[in-house]
Write a structure and sequence with these properties.
CATH topology: Jelly Rolls
Strand order of the largest sheet: 1-9-6-11-4-3-2
Strand content: 15-25%
Helix content: 25-40%
Number of helices: 7
Distance between the termini: 31 Å
Structural class: alpha+beta
CATH class: Mainly Beta
Radius of gyration: 19 Å
Largest sheet: 7 strands, antiparallel
């Protein structure tokens, strides 16, 4: 994407609401070392259950899960890094720095070429997301991550570009494992992308997308570029879609019996601290 012709093509495709896929993006070594970094972060408790579906939050969350058990299907572990963790996790720092530089360069290109990457923003470039980058772990026990956008009205209104990267998996991802990224492009077409190691995916945050049900854990690194100034159009109001049937045993358990949230907490602890984490990452 170094030349102006290539950049014009990328910007135009993003503007049309298409998805850009770059394989062998950061190199096999970075992909492997990022997996090793993630393992070390998990070992010291660097990943936490995501608040939105954390069954340890007590009676209120327990009642919410019992009313909407599909929350547990989108249960995931997350680690936020606001600045590159150079000393402790060098591969994480390198990948985060590279993705931030890419997002910034695409923003610079739209200014230089006067070609907006999004119809919802003026071509005034991008700034770094102050929240940093997100490492997420999802796809165990039949879990998925429900259909959503990254730029809804409740949060992420400033997001202009999503960059999603897959490191190496252990065992390696194979067809049939599930966990594909499903994106609904602006023209109505559906795109399904395998979570192949060292794959980079770029798209506008307004596009609805989801991680499909998986039998093996998968890790993603996500970096967002924020728009400068005000949006030209309001962010979409699409909520997370929790209407699908239960795909995880945690969700199915919540349907069958009272106290399922506690069961989910026990299971999630085993994923992070027990043998399942070592065997699926």
């Amino acid at each position: 994407m170094a030349g102006s012709i290539g950049l014009r093509h990328v910007l135009a495709a993003l503007h049309r609401g298409e998805v850009i896929v770059v394989d062998d993006a950061l190199g096999a070594r970075t992909a492997a070392l990022l997996l090793a970094d993630a393992k070390r972060q998990m070992a010291v408790g660097g990943f936490e259950a995501e608040t939105a579906a954390d069954p340890r939050l007590g009676p209120a969350m327990r009642a919410l899960v019992e009313r909407t058990p599909t929350l547990l299907d989108s249960f995931r572990y997350v680690a936020w890094h606001r600045s590159p963790p150079f000393a402790a996790y060098p591969a994480t720092a390198a990948a985060m720095t590279a993705l931030r530089a890419l997002v910034t360069s695409l923003g610079d290109a739209e200014v230089r070429l006067s070609q907006p990457l999004s119809p919802d923003w003026s071509p005034t470039g991008t700034v770094r997301d102050p929240a940093g980058c997100l490492l997420s772990l999802v796809g165990f026990n039949g879990t998925r991550y429900a259909l959503h956008t990254d730029a809804n009205q409740r949060q992420g209104r400033q997001r202009k570009l999503t960059a999603l990267y897959y490191p190496q998996f252990e065992p390696a991802w194979r067809p049939g494992d599930g966990g594909e990224l499903r994106v609904l492009q602006a023209n109505g077409s559906e795109l399904r992308l395998a979570p192949r190691a060292d794959r980079l995916v770029l798209f506008r945050p307004e596009l609805r997308h989801e991680a499909l049900q998986s039998r093996v854990a998968r890790i993603t690194m996500t970096v967002w570029g924020h728009g400068r100034g005000e949006r030209l159009a309001a962010a979409p109001a699409h909520p997370v879609d929790l209407t699908h049937r239960c795909t995880s045993t945690m969700c199915q358990g919540a349907v069958r019996r009272t106290g399922a949230a506690a069961d989910a907490a026990d299971y999630s602890a085993s994923v992070v601290h027990g043998s399942q984490a070592r065997s699926t990452l």
